[in-house]
Amino acid sequence: MVNAFSVLAMIAASAQLGILVTLHVLPTKYDPVHDAISDYGVGDYRRYFWAQLAAGALACICIAVALTGLHPYVPALVVVLLLANAAARLSMPAFPTDQSGNRFQTVKGTIHMLLAVVAFGAVAAAATGLGGLFSHYPAWHSAKGLLVTVGWVVLAGAVACALGLVGPRLKPIFGLIERFFTLSVIVWIYLISIELIRVS
Predict the structure, then answer these.
(1) What distance in Å separates the CA atoms of residue 130 and residue 140, rounded to the nearest whole number?
(2) Which of 9, 57, 107, 125 is close enough to 86 for a disulfide, judged by CB 3.0 to 4.6 Å?
(3) Helices 141-166 & 107-127, crossing angle to 10 degrees?
């Protein structure tokens, strides 16, 4: 079970990455440096945005399920956080983001931002919450340095996104910051999937 869901997680993460790349070559008229990824959820290409959300959610669900297959220790909090991320992602299409600078203009836009906070915060906490694995499974010790480093990169990206929403100096490059965060999460998904396959 661990191997199967880890492989599925990598496939889902690859699909998410592929869809995001596609969105950036389509004539969406969005600026990847300034505009949020959520902006793709408004307009003619919103189905691509929905698809990448679903792929990212599936990747997190698969990692959560794979982690539950570990024995004897299961990092329950990390599992819950990954499922929270997935639930928030899957809810976002019903609540498109507000544009034109203010992300809190409407009820739907405000809900979208709250869901984004949950999604970003949950996956950042999950990526930095694997200490139990390292202490309970000696086989993970060789990967500890890399996973801890990438986990902190994910957390730093989430914090930078939060600052980019309110900081006047970071707002002009919010899109770039969010894309860095998203890519770091995908890298973390790949790494944790590979390690789950290696130690199972």
Answers:
(1) 10
(2) 57
(3) 160
